[in-house]
Amino acid sequence: MTVNASDQAHQGVPARSGSGLWSALSSASGQAEFTAAWLALQCAMLPGVRCGVLVLGPPDTGPFAPAALWPAGAAPGTALTEAADQAVEDRAVAVAEADGWLAVAHPLIIDGHMYGLAALELTAQRAEPVIQALRWGLGQVEARLRAEEGGDGALARERLMTTLNAVAATLNEERSADAAHAIATDLATRFNCDRVSIGIRKNERSEVIAVSHSADFGERMNLIAAIGSAMDEAIDQNTTLCLPQAESGALVTRDHAALARQHGSGSLLTAPFMVEAGSGSDGKVLGALTFERAGVLPFEQGEIELCQGIVALCSRILVTKRAEERPLALRLKDQWRVEMGRVLGERHFTRKFVLLMIAAMLLISIVGEGTYRVGSDAKLEGAVRRVLVAPYDGYLDTAPHRAGDIVAAGTVLATFDTRDIKLEYLKSASLNEQYARQAEESLAQHDRAAAGINQAQAQQARAEMDLRAYQVERSSVTAPFTGIVVSGDFSQSLGSAVRRGQTLFEISPLNAYRVILEVEEAEIDGVRVGQHGKLVLASLPGETFPFTVTLVTPVTSSREGHSFFRVEAALDRLAPNLRPGMEGVGKVEIGERRLIWIWTHRLVNWVRVATWSWF
Questions:
Q1: Cis peptide before 244 (omega within 30 of 0)
Q2: Which residues pair with 585 in a beta bridge?
Q3: 3-state DSSP assignment of residue 427
Q4: Does the predicted model carry a pTM greater than 0.70?
């Protein structure tokens, strides 16, 4: 459906046939021509259209701007503006009326993303046909956008592959010189160049380090000097230079023109490169790449952008390889210069703060003093440890107490079975009476010899009686003082045989303790009798017990490859919850020392011993 000439004349729009509009749409090359032809055709297909607009922009985010306006220079009415705003906000079709005009806005949504909208303002009529026409017409715009996105994607993929191949060519070589020659040759082939040169900035001048298709270029001094001058020209202006220029007179290209004139290069492109601050160059330009073509084959904008991207990536690899090949002394010097620049520069506040804190701590450690303490593992033992043994060979009858029990003085810890002893006692008593009677009978018969023998036998029997009575008296093992049973548990061995002198129990008092410190041999030199310290026990971490060193023994023990000396100390303060066998950490206060000495003396001593043993 088309609008006749009279309608168009009434609207102030030049008359144009429908076939002409379709022809303009199909032959449109750019987006501007396509959107203008599409909107004109859309407006011509509907009767009474006064104004139309096609709005496009980045998907969802915008900003959305008019891509075409019909007729050209027309001012959209109130109804059209309201409908367009409502369509953008709701992402749906919007209809508005004002001053007798109907406005319809239809959003352009592709794969769930809003790319824009098309809006028409026309004489009041039914909105459904207009919405349907816009829906069908926007299908052509969608197809066009999809085609453009596909073309852009293919171009992007092609550029990405070119960049990756160039980077791979650089990475495949170990030496920087080989990598530079490889990338120069690869770029010359890919961009149809007669020559690609790579230069590095040195002493404010560019030194050519690689030329494509040429491993030895030292003899062509004039050419190399001209290329270096062209690189300096681009580096000094800190921009990419292209000859011929797109805009004449915008940049200085005198050295590029001289290179082209003297060596027959029709088109030139020089792209400088730099490494960001922190990579050893503080963000300065480090060099450039120069591309040369013979004849009139200028570099297009897409090729220039691609060259800049490749140069930015490959140059970093080249710079890194050259830096790694430098002598260690020069690398350390450069790193030192970089770090000092960061410290003395304007940024890197965290680094400055950390260094300031380190300097303050170092100053405090040199000037300040503190108490030097020798720490070691510690164990609490009773000052007295009484051993209770079996008085004779026998059998245990009772054992009501065991290790860990607190007992009072005189408490029975164990008893022996005395039945056999009592029987032996009765036997000896009977023999004593028998021998005593026989002795009396012998005296009555005036047989002194027999009487003496009988009296001796009676005394022997009486001695046996005394022994058995003594054994019965000692059949109970009692605690000699109030304390804690440290070892001994026969509660599961009642009736078992014990031998004379066998250890049954060990008991320690609760009011006398000593601290056993295991001081490492590297620290024992400073420990002296009379020094004070503090003990913290693992079972009582909230309490500190002061002590005084009473004995430094020459007895050593080895554990985990280290030797330890036994040091004894007496507690200055007791507590009711202390028990023998408790372990913890004790620290002996040696005296005042410089903080830096306290923190480093062990390392210094180790270095001294190691140095002496080595040399």
A1: yes
A2: 377, 536
A3: helix
A4: no
pLDDT tens-digit map of 428-483: 888 888 888 888 888 888 888 888 888 888 889 899 888 888 888 888 888 888 88
167 assigned to some structural domain: no
**Shared domain check, 472 and 521:** no
Phi-psi group of 280: left, alpha or beta (phi > 0 → left; psi -120 to 50 → alpha; rest → beta) = left
The sheet with strand 113-123 has its strands ordered as 65-70, 49-56, 113-123, 101-110, 94-98
The tokens for 482 are: 């109030």
Place of tokens 């953008």: 88
Q: Is residue 340 part of a domain?
A: no
- Nearest-CA neighbor of 399 among 384, 382, 417? 417
Cα(188)–Cα(241) distance, integer angstroms: 17
Give the residues of the chain that fall short of pLDDT 70: 1-22, 26, 149-160, 162, 164, 169, 217-219, 246-250, 275-284
pLDDT of residue 250: 67
Token pair belonging to 209: 């380090």
* Residues 38 and 132 grouped into a single domain: yes
pLDDT in the model for residue 153: 55
Closest CA to 142 of 177, 167, 118, 176: 118
Helix or strand (DSSP H, E) at 563: strand 562-571
Q: Note whether 45 and 15 are same-domain residues.
A: yes
The domain containing residue 583 runs over which residues? Answer: 513-614
Residue with tokens 């108490």: 371
The C-alpha atoms of residue 490 and residue 398 are separated, in whole angstroms, by 8
50 and 11 in contact (C-beta within 8 Å)?
A: yes
Q: Are 53 and 76 in contact (CB under 8 A)?
A: yes
- 587's CB contacts (< 8 A; 6+ apart) are 373, 374, 375, 376, 533, 534
Location of structure tokens 């109130």: 78
In this predicted structure, what is the pLDDT of residue 397? 86
Q: In total, how many domains does the chain have?
A: 4
